[in-house]
Amino acid sequence: MRTVRIGVDTGGTFTDVVAVDEQTGEITTTKTPSTPANPADGFMNGVHKVLAGRSLSEVGGIVHGTTVATNQLLEDRPVDLGFVTTEGFEFILEIARQSVPDGYGNSYFWVKPPRIVPVHRVKTVGGRLDHLGEEVRPFDEEEAVRVARWFRDRGVTALGVCFLHSYANPAHERRMREVLEREHPGAVVSLSSDVLREYREYERSVTTLVDAAVKPTMRRYIANLSSRLGMPFSVMKSNGGVLSATEVVHQPITTVLSGPAAGALGAALIAGTGGHPSVITLDGGGTSTDVAVVVDGEPSLTTEGSIGRYPCKIPMIDIVTVGAGGGSIAWISPEDTLKVGPKSAGADPGPICYGKGGTEVTVTDAHVYLGRVPPHLLGGEIPLDADAARAGIEALAGKLGLSPERTAVGVLEISAFNQSNAIRQITVKRGLDVRDFPMVAFGGSGPLLVCRLIDILSVPAVVVPPNPGNVSAFGLLTVDVKNDYVRTHVTRELSLGTAAGILGDLEAQAAATLDREGFPAGRHVYARSADLRYYGQAYEVRVPAPAGPIDEAWRAEVLDRFHEAHHKLYGYGYRDDPRHAVEWVNLRVSGIGPITRPVIRELPPADGAAAAPAGERAVYFDEDPGSPLHQNGWWTAPVHRRGDLRRGDVVTGPAVIEEYGSTLPLHPGFTAEVDRHANLVVRRATAHKDGAGE
User: Fold this and answer.
1) Were 307 and a residue from 73, 74, 85, 685 both cysteine, which residue would form a disulfide, CB within 3.0 to 4.6 Å?
2) How far apart are the first and last CA of the chain?
3) Which of the 8 DSSP states describes residue 228?
4) Helix, strand, coil percent content, the chain, rounded in steps of 5
5) SS3 sequence of 184-216
6) 3-state secondary structure 627-667
7) Alpha-carbon gap, residue 610 to 614, rounded angstroms
8) What is the b/e burial string over 177-200, where b = at least 16 CB atoms within 10 angstroms of the residue's CB?
9) What is the pLDDT of residue 341?
10) Which whole-number Å values give the CA distances from 169 to 172, 238, 408, 498, in the listed order?
11) pLDDT tens-digit profile of 387-415?
């Protein structure tokens, strides 16, 4: 009987796995090193490890968070691409938005990076549609044939097609695909009307080309996994939903923030169960740290995201990523200042302390030198070479003219500020006060710097879930099936009949996908939304739109939500000012197939005396240098096993709390309390309250 569901999150350093037995509710977690050369190897190793001898026949479902598409874009290695667009618009990619990135106030010093498709591989085809989708000039099939043969003869097999105003009418793009299928059958083709049926031709073009770039890689990867598993599985999407692998190969761009999205959703469920509906999530891995904001139980969504230097207007959880993970490398700039990241030692060769050939000091090496992590990882599976880490820190300290302790602390301090800057981007720059949000810290390296982040950001508390290194994999098992559909219709006078027709069409597309995913019609959920703006504005505000009939009450409700959201975002609105008309831009539908989520169990009330620490070791904390309890910054700190802590237990720093996949160094002046769901709630000691977190 198939009773086990498995979540597998492939990260840059480790592959995290969680299995839930749906009969007993038992949750099993494990980790295994990632295999960057072939991520499928790490995936299969993790599945067999978590099953511990049980058969794949007992597995009822597997959900996968993958970085295959993301890494291809972040490492800036798209395949050789070709681009087909409307005659006269061959320089869409070159012109872009004529904007200079932040940090280059004087554009004289900015060098434009290479385009995703060089101009000599951009070809145009005659034919023209207007903004309503009406044909102005017919499609030039003879030119289309010449273009298809040109790409075929030069071996360009990944092609993106984006014709002007194809969001309103995809007919010309579909005819181009027919020509390509006939003349260049070996090509992988992405149409903008399939990938992003939304206006703004530059963003639609790049999004389509990104889809075409990752499609061959994702198809090979999914086919490899499918053959090795011998069973269907699902893949996490950037929008906070999942889709079967057989469907996701047709829209691989939707997976570009697969793993981080799962982490934000898993953390949201854990925090909400613990009484924190609105939180900041911090997912610290070996390569990077991903941060997001959850408001009232839902992570914020955006369509203005980017992956590397490529704008991607697909719906995605609003995540900011910074190169501040455990493997981030410390280096000295030409100005003789210490820097940390974004380059990472990754899983191979990894930090110096891994003993696999790494030669550059990393954040993990600094933690090892300061005694803040144990001399092994994963319960002893990965021994760490503390002597090698010490030699690396001492060599770096000699170059900087600092003591080894100050050097190691400096590496961690820079990493903490890199993380805090990412958190400010996702809060302060969005008009949110970071002090109003507790933080959920997870991932293998997520808990390591939480005490410093509390001081830097003044967050009220940090929640560290059980098995923090596996929260993203757990999040994969909490996610509904979800697909998003959009149609641009720009108007100041929205016809109710037109709106009903567009939404009905989008819901029909969503229903067809949910039917293929095996959800009966009675379980389909359709979430509507609309993008609106005041006439004359350049960008829109998205608001949820109610279900039910499309009538005057429906339109009035959407307009009311828009005025309220605009005022909340920008501090002003024109609700009662007839001089400022509202313009409708996009109508959207998300088709959702709900799943049954795992239940987070409560710990029983504590009985008897608290367990004694498992041991003690020398740990360097530079707080309170006048205390007689330490010598030159080195404390003799108790080491607690997290599994020994019970509900209501309070650990006071300095201390270290260790578990299988992560470690929490508790600085002097901080406390960690176990709440009823086994989370550790970390606060400044003066902020501790009895019963907090209940």
Assistant:
1) 73
2) 37
3) H
4) 35, 25, 40
5) CCCCEEEEHHHHCCCCCHHHHHHHHHHHHHHHH
6) CCCEECCEEEEEEEEHHHCCCCCEEECCEEEECCCCEEEEC
7) 12
8) bebbeebbeebbbbbbbbbbbbbe
9) 84
10) 8, 26, 59, 15
11) 999 999 999 999 999 999 999 999 999 99
Sign of CA dihedral 221, 118, 166, 188: negative
Give per-residue pLDDT as tens, 355-384: 888 899 999 999 999 999 998 877 767 789
Using CA atoms, how far residue 594 sits from 180, 235, 510, in Å, is 38, 15, 13
Helix H segments across 517-660? 552-570
Amino acid at 318: D
Q: Are strands 634-641 and 655-658 parallel, antiparallel or unpaired?
A: parallel
pTM: 0.83
Asked if 654 contacts 620 with a C-beta cutoff of 8 angstroms, the reply is no
Q: How many angstroms separate the CA atoms of 219 and 205, rounded?
A: 21
Q: Tokens in use for 690?
A: 């009895």
E strands in 263-313: 279-284, 289-295, 298-299, 301-302, 305-307, 310-312
Rounded to 5 degrees, φ, ψ at 190 are -120, 130
Q: Measuring CA to CA, how many Å separate 574 from each of 330, 430, 539, 562?
A: 51, 21, 16, 10
Give dist(CA 199, CA 193) in Å, integer: 10
> Per residue in 415-469, pLDDT tens?
999 999 999 988 988 888 999 999 999 998 999 999 999 999 999 999 999 999 8
pLDDT in tens, 124-137: 999 999 998 999 99
Q: State the DSSP H helix or E strand holding residue 45, giving kind and residue range, or none if neither.
A: helix 39-51
Of residues 308, 306, 346, 311, the one with CA closest to residue 328: 346
Question: So what's the pLDDT on residue 693?
Answer: 38
Query: Would you give the distance in Å from CA 639 to the centre of its chain?
Result: 33
Cα separation of 425 and 423, whole Å?
5
To the nearest 10 degrees (0 to 180), the angle between helices 552-570 and 496-516 is 80
Residue written as token pair 């390509």: 180
CB 656 within 8 A of CB 637: yes
Which tokens belong to 279?
């939180």
* Predicted local confidence at residue 146, as pLDDT: 97
Q: Tell me the C-alpha distance between 414 and 386, whole Å.
A: 22
Strands 234-236 and 59-65: parallel
Residues of the chain with pLDDT under 70: 1-2, 74-79, 101-108, 308, 380, 623-631, 687-694
SS3 label, residue 375? coil
Closest CA to 641 of 380, 452, 363, 449: 380
Distance CA(140)–CA(176), nearest Å, equals: 9
